[in-house]
Structures are given as C-alpha cells and as structure tokens.
Amino acid sequence: MSGLGERVLVVAFDGWNDAGDAASSATAHLRRMAEYEPIFSADPEPYFDYQYTRPQLRVGDDGVRRIAWPEITVWRPRKTDGPVSFWLLTGVEPARAWQHLTADLIDVALGEDITGMVTLGSMMSDVPHTRPITIYSGSDNDTLRAALGLERPTYEGPVGILSVLEEAAEEAGIPSASLWASVPHYIGGHTPSPKATLALLDRLAELARSDIARGDLPAEALAWEASIDAAAADDEDMTEYIRQLERTRDTWDSPEASGDAIAQEFERYLRRRGDGPGERGPGDKGPSGWDGPRR
C-alpha cells in the first residue's frame, strides 16, 4: 500500500491545466477501463461564465439536439475489490466561487472515505516529442514526499483550481500529490497528446502501486509521435529545432553530466534562441524545459 491509501481520488479539469488534453484524457481513460457511477454533480450556474465556457449544442443518439452544460462530477467505481480503487473528479475548470465549490468537493471526498488525492495537469514546454514525457511529481505533504520520493513544490504565483483543491484536501486530512506532464509546445495546446496521457497514467500507477490497464494508449502514443516525425520531415526549421531540444534534453538527462556541463549546454541553447545568460524572466524554463507547474 502506498502513502495514498486504498481509496484514491484522481482529479483533472479541462482548460488551463490541460495542455494537449493529457490530464482530462487520463481520467477519461480510467472511466473507460472500469465501471463508474456519478455521485455528485455541481450545478453549473454559480461556477461558470458562459461567455468564457459556452454550453454546447449536441445531437443525441435519438437525433434530438440538446444543450450540454459545463459539468463538474465526482465518479465512484462500481467495484472496489482491488488493493487500490480510483474515484474520479472530472469537468471543466470553473470561473468563479472556487472556495465554495472546493468545500463541497472535499465534503464529498470525506463522505466517500477518500484516503489520498492525486491531481493531474499538463503544461506546454520546450521539450522534444521524441523523448520520454517529463512528469513533475510533487506534494506539500512531508510524509507523502518521504514515502513516494516526491518533490517539494517551490512555485509562487497564479494558480488553477487544482492547487486550491490540494490545499483544502491537506487541511481536511487527505494527503495529496500532483502530477504534471510537459507537452511539446510546438505541437499545439489543443492537439491531443496520448503520449503525455500515457506518461501520466504510468506515473499514477507507480504512486498508487496499482495496475492500470493501458488499452490502446501505447499504440496511439506511437502513432502520435510518428505523425509529428512526418510533419517535421517536411520542415527543415522544425527538424533543426527538435534536434536542439533533443541535445538539451539528452545533456540534462545524462548521468555523466555535471552541473557546469548542463549550465553550459543551456546557455548555448539560450543563445540559439536569441536570449543570453542573466536575461531570463521569471516565467522562463530551466534546462529540462520545466521549472515546475504553474498551477
């Protein structure tokens, strides 16, 4: 059993926290791999700005058009006979009344006797699609960091609702961790990235010490990478840019690399971009293309 316990709430929201649909696709995959029932659904009216998150008009299986409103739903697994069971919190990141909504969601989690929470997110980053997806794994919980080898988050600045939920969970006695995938920025933020989704699920399985069925995701990840390779083959500038990212990533990942070597390689990378040492702003990324999530 991991430090997260046997009843783990996995959280992902569409929107700001979900580059490449990686996080929301991960919870959608979990729902497809098991049977779930909704146990809580928030009334969208107090929480959404419909000019920002517009309702969608959709045609149902019966051929009738209906309006689908933004949703925030907690899902319970119908079977909990394994060593670890995943509850799910899914939906669209709301625009307002976060504290009120978070209080309701934590009440639901306590009522379900949730023993741990993992939030999933993804951000655009200067990383190559040809290398393993980087997953940032962090927690503000000292015990959880020691048990699972997680990092202590150091980011300060604007956050998403995931951070609000994590803080509320900790205050309620539910240990929480966060997983963030770095998605290559040149792919496009709204292009689904199954490779990032797969990486998030793999890391979640490690933390929860639970098997997660991968389904078609490995094949989809390979096809995704091959499609980008094909597009880059017709664009010399894109090909060279990807090679630069690969060199930087390989230097950073090399076990032989010293701190000085990493710094020198990163300075060369910055010069190629037209930047220079000492000219990085507070939002610029480190040598791996990632300095922790802006949650």
Please summarize what this structure is.
The protein is α/β, with parallel strands linked by helices and 295 residues long. The radius of gyration is 20 Å and the shape is globular.
Task: Write up what this structure looks like.
With 295 residues, the protein is α/β, with parallel strands linked by helices. The chain has a single domain, classed as 3-Layer(aba) Sandwich (Rossmann fold), CATH 3.40.50. Helix content is 37%, strand content 19%. The protein has 8 helices and 9 strands. It has helices spanning 22-33, 98-111, 142-148, 161-171, 194-208, 217-233, 236-253, 259-273; strands at residues 7-11, 36-41, 56-59, 65-68, 72-77, 85-91, 116-125, 135-138, 176-184. The chain has a 7-stranded mixed sheet with strand order 2-5-6-1-7-9-8, with helices on both faces. It has a two-stranded antiparallel sheet with strand order 3-4. β3 (56-59) and β4 form a beta hairpin. α2 crosses α4 (161-171) and α5 (194-208) packs antiparallel against α6. The longest helix is centred in the last third of the chain and has 18 residues, at 236-253. The radius of gyration is 20 Å and the shape is globular. Residues 275-292 have low confidence and may be disordered.
What topology emerges from the helices and strands here?
Blueprint: E1 7-11, H1 22-33, E2 36-41, E3 56-59, E4 65-68, E5 72-77, E6 85-91, H2 98-111, E7 116-125, E8 135-138, H3 142-148, H4 161-171, E9 176-184, H5 194-208, H6 217-233, H7 236-253, H8 259-273
Parallel strand pairs: 1-6, 1-7, 7-9
Antiparallel strand pairs: 2-5, 3-4, 5-6, 8-9
